[in-house]
Amino acid sequence: MSKHKNLIFYISVIGVLSVIIYFVLSLGQNQLQPSLDGNEIVSQHSAWTNFSTSVIQEATGSTALLILQIIVILCFVRLFGWVCQKIGQPTVIGEIIAGIVLGPSLLGAFFPEMSELIFPESSIGSIKLLSEIGLILFMFIVGMELDLKVLKNRANDAVLISHTCIAILFTLGIIFSYFIYPYFSHPNGHFVSFALFMGIAMSITAFPVLARIVHERGLNKTPLGAMVITCAAVDDITAWCLLAAVIAIAKAGTFVSSLYVIFFAVVYVILMFKLVRPFLQRVADLQTSKNIISKSIIGIFFLVLFLSSYLTSIIGIHPLFGAFLAGVIMPPNINFRKLFIDKIEDISLVILLPLFFVYTGLNTRIGLLNDGYLWMICGIIILIATTGKLVGGALVSRFIGFDWKSSMTIGALMNTRGLMELVVLNIGYDLGILTPEVFAMMVVMALVTTFMTSPLLDLIDRIFKNKVPANITERKVYKILAPFKNIELGEKLLLIANSFVKKSQNYSEINMVHFTPGNNLYQYSIEDEERDTFEPILEKARELGQPVNTMFEVASEPFAKIVKLSNDGDYDLLLIGAHYSIYQGNLLGQFLGLSTKLLRFPAHLFSFLKKNKRVTNRDVLSLGDGTHSVLKNSNLSVGIFIDRGLTEIKNVIVPILDEDDIFVGDFMERLTQNSYVRITLWDAIGLMDNSIEFVKSVRGIKAVNPYLFQLWNNNIPIDVDIFKKHDLLMVSLKSWKNLRERYPSWEKDVPSTLILND
User: Fold this and answer.
1) Please, what is the Cα angle at 47 between 41 and 52, to 5 degrees?
2) If both were cysteines, with which of 160, 170, 189, 296 could 185 make a disulfide (CB 3.0 to 4.6 Å apart)?
3) How many CB atoms neighbour CB 50 within 10 A?
4) For residues 470 and 528, what is the distance between their CA atoms, to the nearest angstrom?
5) In this predicted structure, what is the pLDDT of residue 583?
6) 540 close to 494: Cβ distance less than 8 angstroms
7) What is the Rg, in whole angstroms, of the alpha carbon atoms belonging to the chain?
8) pLDDT of residue 151
9) For residue 676, what pLDDT is reported?
10) CATH of the domain spanning 70-461
């Protein structure tokens, strides 16, 4: 009875209070409420009608409609971004296309009723307001991502390349605007404002997208990559300063009036650097923790951000310039910036920024370009924009001293426009400077120039590809790729890789690669993170006497990047740790970025979209979705490492429980030839009696050192204690599955394991 005391008390209290509430409500209805007339009595009986009317009213209300719009926008942006990733394009391309698809160019043209239902004209203001807040946060992050020290180190060449490209395109844009102004301008528009905006729109380079491409292609550690990133940063700063001046001229109406705006803008910039920046540095110095930022300090920095945006807005420039400058003057402490960026990056990039793409799409009417003449003008715009950056950047780079390949690479990368171009275009559109036709043409130009960057880089690589003379023959180099998530795993994978190539280092290559999660922005602390990550790995390599190559990559989908890198790099062995990923598994999981464990039912519905797998029964293997994805898509041998405290490799046990384990003999032979290890072969199925190829591998092992090899057949009793005496269990994937099925209780006691898949 005592154990039900709380339940009885709960039911009693709720029951008594419910009776009292019912009594009071009934009494009030009978005595205080006036009598109902006939119509009201009838309305009481139409409860379903009242409910359905209420649902419709709520669904079409401003708040519910905005939530619905955000849901639709996020789904489309995620879908098109995912598609672009799969074809090797920046996700920003897909996000821009998603905005155009949801706008009048496609949805409004072919499904006008649905477009009016989801994006009615009255709701555009809400989308615009939220997108502007997202842009303010985005530009703040872009400003924080700029490393002014890097600009100082390479300022001369970067300024020459960047400013020459800007000058060329600014001039070409103004000349071109002279010819199209009579046909593509507002009746009351000013030529000066139109020409200046066309010039600045032609000149822009997308620093975040460019930096992302540089990192994805592994150029960030080269002098070329550093120079391109610096050029883009200089381009960004210069373009925003020019844009501020152009906006001032456009708003003031005359150049003389704009001088007041420019004067106050210069004063504002000086105050931000001379007064506000030292103040923020002192505030940051009060921060004692390296892992968290106090709410009071966050509040101060956000206050500076919005005050800066507000001041630039009332001065007559644009709030985005204030947000950008607020980010630039933030304290330079790397850890501090990283912590602060993490606070706002996701909400800005994932939720608010997609609203900007759709707002741009709602303003973009590709259908206005309904004539061959208009498409010819659009083609000329693309040609001018591409020529100015590609040719201009390449020639200036060549003049400085870069070779032709590097020069053309710089030009191709500087031609990337992406999101920054859309920001400039929307400012011009909102100010009434650009007409809908010109706006649509410029959006197409932004898409085309950004889309062509990756194909251009591939074409340049093919044109300047180094060819080995036909009469030169070299011994095959055994190449190992070892991607690692953390330093401890990296050291273990390096130890295993070294065991396979220790005595043949002249004909082997170990590549250690670390993938850090990232988005489209260049990470401010990327160089420091790379140094901190690889210092212990390089120290371990020196201890082993093993030369290694290091690669540091920013990747939003690490496992997909691992597969691409391993398949494209002519590697012989891929060593990975057994990971659990929330980004892989099936098409729906990759699209949404969610785990199949969180989406069991939907994932099952989409299971028909999965490819044929080389290994089945993933649940039995329990290696995680990410590891399984690597196994499924890699075209080379894969070694999956499960760590249980590996410190050295002297005793290795190799169980053979499947007839397809012949390839394991090659790994045993390579291990013996390169390391002083003792191998215990447990041939549980008699493969030595059935495979001549496997016997040859065993003979090769014995030829190296017969005293470091022991063979057991199925007649010798084996228990888990024997496994415990070894440092490493090396087993094929199928034999690992069989071992777990036959001896499920052994799994927790076996040593560190290397699972091989041919």
Assistant:
1) 140
2) 189
3) 11
4) 42
5) 37
6) yes
7) 32
8) 59
9) 84
10) 1.20.1530.20
Q: What is the largest CA-CA distance in the chain?
A: 108
Give Cα separations from 656 to 642, 686, 712, 729, 746 (angstroms): 18, 8, 10, 11, 16
With contact defined as beta carbons under 8 Å apart, do 682 and 718 qualify? Answer: yes
752-to-253, 357, 545, 646, 724 alpha-carbon distances in Å: 74, 49, 23, 6, 10
Beta strands 478-484; 573-577: pairing state: parallel
pLDDT value, residue 368: 87
Buried/exposed code over 460-494 (b: 16+ C-beta within 10 A; e: otherwise): beeeeeeeeeeeeeeeeebbbbbbbeebebbbbbb
Q: Are 197 and 434 in contact (CB under 8 A)?
A: yes
Q: Can you tell me which residue has the tokens 């030839």?
A: 673
Contact criterion met (CB below 8 Å) for 236 and 420: yes
Paired tokens of 460 = 């340049």
Burial degree of 112 (CB within 10 A; 0-12, 13-18, 19+): exposed
Q: What is the mean pLDDT of each run of 10 residues along the chain (758 residues)?
A: 77 90 82 58 59 71 85 90 81 85 89 88 86 87 72 71 88 92 82 88 79 68 73 78 80 70 85 91 73 79 92 83 87 74 78 86 87 91 90 87 86 84 86 89 90 88 64 65 89 92 86 73 62 88 89 76 82 80 40 41 42 40 65 86 89 90 90 88 85 84 82 75 88 89 83 90
Gap between the Cα atoms of 471 and 121, Å rounded: 70
pLDDT attached to residue 361: 87
Measured CA to CA, the distance from residue 646 to residue 670 in angstroms comes to 20
| Element of type H or E holding 288 | none
Alpha helices for 119-254 (secondary structure H): 124-145, 148-153, 155-180, 191-203, 207-216, 223-252
Question: Of 643, 640, 651, nearest to 731 (Cα)?
Answer: 640
How many residues in the chain? Answer: 758
- Residue 473: per-residue pLDDT: 43
Token pair for residue 270?
A: 């000086």
Alpha carbon distance 400, 390 (integer Å): 16
pLDDT at site 445: 92
- On the question of a common fold for 478-595+612-639 and 644-757, the answer reads yes
Tell me the residue type at 392.
G
Topology (CATH) of 478-595+612-639: Rossmann fold (3.40.50)
The enclosing H or E element of 717 equals none
Q: In what order do the strands lie in the sheet with 728-732?
A: 549-555, 508-517, 478-484, 573-577, 637-642, 752-757, 728-732, 651-656, 678-683, 709-713
Element counts in the chain: helices (H) and strands (E): 36, 10
* Domain 644-757 bears CATH identifier 3.40.50: yes
Domain boundaries, the chain: 70-461, 478-595+612-639, 644-757
Is residue 530 within 8 Å of 225, Cβ to Cβ?
Answer: no
485 token code pair: 């998530």
pLDDT at site 468: 43
State CA 10 to chain mean position distance. Answer: 51
CA distance 748 to 573: 27
User: Which of 396, 339, 322 lies closest to 139 in space, CA to CA?
Assistant: 322
Q: Among 68, 43, 96, 9, which residue's Cα sits nearest to residue 416? A: 96
Give the helix ranges, DSSP H, for 286-403: 295-315, 319-328, 334-346, 353-363, 372-386, 392-400
Rounded to whole angstroms, the Cα distance separating 198 from 180 reads 11
Give how far Cα 15 sits from Cα of 8, 31, 122, 505, Å: 10, 25, 49, 81
* Dist CA 198 CA 192 (whole Å): 10
Q: What is the value of pTM for the model shown? A: 0.64
Return the pLDDT at 532.
Answer: 83
**Distance, CA of 272 to CA of 308 (rounded, Å):** 9
